[in-house]
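Entry 14. Two folds queued back to back today. First construct below, sequence then structure tokens.
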Amino acid sequence: MNEWINFNKGNEIGDQARSELMSWWHGLSPKDSADLRRCRTSAEVVETRPYYNLVTSLKKLGRVQTNKLPGAVLLLAQVKKYTPEQVLPRQLGQVGLKDIQFRLLLRTSSPEQRVAMIRRWLPRVKYATNILFLTQAMISWGPGSRRKWAEQFYQVENTNQ
């Protein structure tokens, strides 16, 4: 119970967290979704009931990264369709996001800037993506995540040339 929550497949806590996140996301009322979509920053997200509903359900499983989860929640509120087969960096490569824009995302050290960039790009993928992949990336962003995103993005870009 002292373990940090993650959303990775293949471990009991990760599988339970994935299930909790999906239940929470599917269970958002239109009002809750609208409240979250109106948020502009992570600080605004932590002032909402839907955020605390998710935190409460996840805390039953372990420790929650409350410094990183609000940014993920802000993005999840924008997503209209869960597409498990589509991960955002690959999708961004498919829709022609410029290399310089993508590298800027990878290089930014500010979680707020990262969330703002991704939020601006969600319309390009018609607000449909894998929310589990996105959430895990937002809470565990670091060299490993950046490398995984780059591999996904550039593999698609290379096949389009």
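Second construct, same run, same settings:
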Amino acid sequence: MVSQKLHLKKSRKKRRKMMKHFKVIMVLLIAVCFSLSLFGCSGGGVSEEEHGKIVQELNQVKAELKEAKAKIEELSGGSKASTLIENKLREAQQKAGDLADKLKNMTTENSQLKEKTAQLNAMLEDLKAKLKDFQEKAKSLPTDLLQKR
């Protein structure tokens, strides 16, 4: 359980670190897009070739931006996954507690049954001894009650 908590803390730190990196990447990409758009707007006398290069770079930056957004959404979805994991962990802990209580009850019941078994075994031995005594006394009795000794 401790290792799972430690793992969750590490994954949270890792996720935060990744989010910081993505934010920096997004800011840089937006700055590049903005500077490229300003450069394109200010240069009225730009050749078609340069314009095509800039458009291509802009499209590339937009694609990278879409990828970064997708990764951010994926990481945001990771928080849902961690919530599900935490819920499952809580359920497992509750089930473990219930099973521990059940085990304790069964152990108590088992010890009580052992005591009763010991008592019944003692009674059985006593009855066996009484039966043996009775059988020894019965040997001296006639088998046919009508016969006299």
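Quick look at the second one. The mean pLDDT is 77. Residues 142 and 148 are 8 Å apart (CA to CA).
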